[in-house]
Amino acid sequence: MKILLLGSGGREHAMAWKINQSVWANPLFIAPGNAGTAQCGVNIDLHLDDFGAIGKYCIEENIKMVVVGPEEPLVNGLYDYFQSHHILKEIYFIGPSKAGAQLEGSKSFAKSFMQRHQIPTAAYREFTIDNYEEGIAYLNTHPLPIVIKADGLAAGKGVAICQNHVEAIAEYELMIKELKFGDAGRKVVVEEFLKGIELSVFILTDGKHYIMLPEAKDYKRAKEGDEGLNTGGMGAVSPVPFATPGFMYKVEERIIKPTIKGLAKEGIDYKGFIFFGLISVNSEPYVIEYNCRLGDPETEVILPRLNNDLVGLFVATANQELNKVNIEIDKRAAVTIVAVSRGYPGPYEKGYAIKGLDGQYGKQSMIFHAGTKKEGEQVVTNGGRVFCVTSYGEDIREAVASSLEILGKTQFDGINYRTDIGYEFIPAY
Ligand code: AMP
Ligand code: GLY
Fold it and tell me: Are residues 73 and 7 in the same domain?
């Protein structure tokens, strides 16, 4: 079956690696891809916002399945575009409708959805220019810290956690009046701060049934000890030790099942991944955010732990037969550590030669590319997050040690990575 995978990050390299192992994948195309995905299939130069070009390519190449990695094309309605076309609608499409992608594309939609379906989340109010003054009064009496979120997509930067009222009002004004995040911040959600420990839970749903993928925890801050600026993610671990069967039972009963039922009840088409950004507050799960895709770098630890044929799961998703699937998870731990460019998440330079990527690192470890590209025979840096090293281990400590050993054998000018991924789960730290 000819498959087209959309995206170009570490997540997509991990998806391409996993799809490529499937008995169904023949061949795999990735658009636009990176130097790593080119090892798993054929990179195609398509822009993800050019739906016409994607559709035309699928028809010309007789693509049978489209898998969407990042959120933007979904939030912008790529699924709906395919559904509206008599040939494209026959293609298996893994990713939700525009309405379903609103779970990620609009914080306001996500919050009201959770309220409608009694899904535990932080208390909130929403404001625009129309009730601006009311918002100021609300902020002035709100307990600290205060969480302010731009409603729309803001490249992961649209959340401010404010430690005092002056800062909160300044941030509020910047979002609504100065349009710091453009149209995404015309509406803001002001939310209660939840104190706890975060984890990421992933499901694949066919709209009626769902399967649980391994859970993960990512490390968003740039510096060791969870300090420094927020990034797209500096590393991830799976499994998450505090995600006990008892905790996960609560997650399924209170969060996952009501979400699937809620989507169905509201008539929203959803065949794809849901990423639940959760926080455990005294062992009670709350939803911090929904995403309509897999996480990056979480995918780089969850897919290596999944023993099922991924394309087989996608076919079952398209046919609404996920209830017939048994999920098989590797018992080992997996850890990924991301190598980033000097300066990231601020400004950074690109184009540095990367050494050590094609070393023989055995079955314990693998390298997933993110911001890389080929220049002649040389792979060079092409982004802030450049590549990540995933390793298995009997426990998190062992997996971290293996990834660090390999990172020590790779090199590019300005390489930087955290050595403390998984630290809270390694007793000697
Ligand atoms: P989001 O973009 O919604 O994932 O938010 C970014 C980060 O802000 C999350 O990963 C949390 O660490 C933090 N955050 C968001 N909402 C809250 C909240 N209500 N309470 C505490 N932390 C939050
Ligand atoms: N690692 C978090 C995300 O993919 O949004």
Answer: yes
- The CATH number given to whatever domain includes residue 29 is 3.40.50.20
- Quick check: 271 and 98 in contact, CB under 8 A? no
Nearest CA to ligand 2 atom 3: 295
Q: Residue with the nearest Cα to atom 2 of ligand 2?
A: 295
- Which phi and psi (to 5°) does residue 258 adopt? -65, -30
Question: Is residue 166 situated within a structural domain?
Answer: yes
In a domain, 30, yes or no: yes
- At 219, the amino acid letter reads Y
Question: 149-164 in b/e burial notation, b at 16+ Cβ within 10 A?
Answer: bbbbbbeeebbbbbee
Ligand 1 atom, smallest distance to 156 CA: 2
pTM: 0.96
Q: What total of structural domains would you count in the chain?
A: 2
Rounded to an integer, what distance in angstroms lies between the CA atom of residue 5 and that of residue 30? 5
Report which residue type is found at 104: E
Q: What is the CATH number of the domain that holds 149?
A: 3.30.1490
Quote the Cα angle for 328-393-372, to 5°. 90
Residue ending a domain, among 96, 115, 149, is 96
Distance CA 248, CA 7 (A): 30
Q: For residue 312, which of 91, 25, 27 has the smallest C-alpha distance? A: 25
Structural domain for 17, as ranges: 3-96
Minimum CA distance residue for ligand 1 atom 15? 288
CA of 232 to the centre of ligand 2 (A): 6
Query: Within this chain, do residues 36 and 77 fall inside the same structural domain, yes or no?
Result: yes
Backbone angles phi, psi at 280, to 5 degrees: -100, 115
Domain for residue 21, yes or no? yes
Alpha-carbon distance 16 to 37, whole Å?
A: 6
CA of 350 to the centre of ligand 2 (A): 23
* Segment 136-181, tens digit of pLDDT: 999 999 999 999 999 999 887 889 999 999 999 999 999 999 899 9
What digits encode the pLDDT tens for the residues 252-297? 999 999 999 999 999 999 999 999 999 999 999 999 999 999 999 9
Q: Whose CA is nearest to atom 6 of ligand 1?
A: 159
